[in-house]
Design brief:
The strands form 3 sheets. Strands 4-3-2-1-5 form a 5-stranded antiparallel β-sheet, with no helix packed on it. A 5-stranded antiparallel β-sheet has the order 11-10-9-8-12. A two-stranded antiparallel sheet has the order 6-7. The protein starts with a helix and ends in a 5-residue tail after the last strand. The longest helix has 16 residues. It is flat. It has 3 helices and 12 strands. A hairpin with a 6-residue loop joins strand 1 and strand 2. Among the domains are: 42 residues, no CATH class; 38 residues, no CATH class; 58 residues, Roll (SH3 type barrels).
Amino acid sequence: MAKSIEVEAVKAAINKEWPEGTAADEVASAAIEALDRTRKTSMRGLGAPLAVGNAFKPYWSSKTHYVAWIGPAGPLMANVAWVVTADSHYGTITYVEHPFWRFTSPVEEKARTIRRKIYAGGEVLDDRGEPFLDRSGEVIITEPVYKATEYDTPGSKVVGVNDLGMVAGDKVSFRNDGQYTVEAVYCHGVLLRSRQSGLIWADENSNLEKYYTDGWERE
């Protein structure tokens, strides 16, 4: 819950005698800066323009969020960003110019390290090619050897890939009347654009399997 001093700082910024015609974004920015000064913090957002693949955390969440897609919400409409997390099913659509981004901090993801087997092990052979025996007469078997190697970053397993194998450009139909093109994908869902209205629509994989069919029945 916000402290009283924080509430008063934001109120003062909002209630300032702003010149007539001042943009709402400017007022919102002033309120955010007042809150930052009060908290003695500075939320440095990703800033526009955003880029697909950006990883960030909103100040109210410990989850890493990813920008999965950026583009117009519909014909003659403003650009929006489709934001997802590793456990979301639909994601969130937010205007690129929204003050929301000022309350986010970039996340620098490190590559994961996995152990990759490079030698399966086996019998130790002597110079004559015969199995080498230990003192008890047993054949010596070497243990598998592993090597640490860099792997994909976690984000690359969230955005740009889909558990159903859907890819951008795929065409699907919804109950024989809605026709959509896949704009973007992430592990648990897709972003669709309606052929009829041109508007975007996010849906999860379980719904794709139940209610959608591949292709357009009426081209």
